[in-house]
Amino acid sequence: MKAASLSIALDAMGGDRAPDMVVKGANIARQRFPNVSFLFFGDERRIAPLLDRYGALRKASEIRHTDRVIAADDKPSTALRAGRGSSMRLAIDAVQSGEAAGIVSAGNTGALMAIAKFVLRTLPGIDRPAIASFFPTLRGESVMLDLGANLSCDAENLVQFAVMGKVFARTV
Fold first, then answer.
1. Which of 102, 104, 107, 169 is packed most tightly, with the most Cβ within 10 A?
2. SS3 86
3. Is the CB of residue 165 less than 8 Å from the CB of residue 145?
4. Residues in Cβ contact with 113 at an 8 Å cutoff, skipping those fewer than 6 apart
5. What local confidence, expressed as pLDDT, does residue 99 receive?
6. What b/e readout covers 14-30, taking b as 16+ CB neighbours within 10 angstroms?
7. What is d(CA 122, CA 125) in angstroms, rounded to the nearest whole number?
8. 2: helix, coil or strand?
9. Exposed, middle or buried: residue 170 (CB in 10 Å: 0-12, 13-18, 19+)?
10. For the whole model, what pTM was predicted?
């Protein structure tokens, strides 16, 4: 794998149209951010032929094989207990070990949040993780935080989300 300034772990098997849409999305990201490399976690027999369609992406990618996948309807507690070795858990583990700077998954959101909180922990003073995403605006892009992962929040949670959003927007 070619040296890059930033490595992203991808749960290649997460999502309704995985791994096809994951590879296509990574190719779009690679065109926009050419110094990014990718660690694909999932079924190598399905991922490799898709990567071979995109030469530049293939050169900036590595596949880590696993047959295990967390299903969309798995309960977060079940995924946390039984998800070791899954594409999602291995991608999160890559962030924890420092191999990757972040993880992207279109899989089971509840499982993703539960496993990430368990493996990566939260910063001191932060009780809950939040999902963030960019949205285009007339002036560029805007960051929206807590996109439905938390069903009920108190005032302290909202303050924590605001702090995380501010740091994320300035850093990223």
1. 107
2. strand
3. yes
4. 76, 129, 131, 149
5. 97
6. bbeebbeebbeebbebb
7. 8
8. coil
9. exposed
10. 0.86
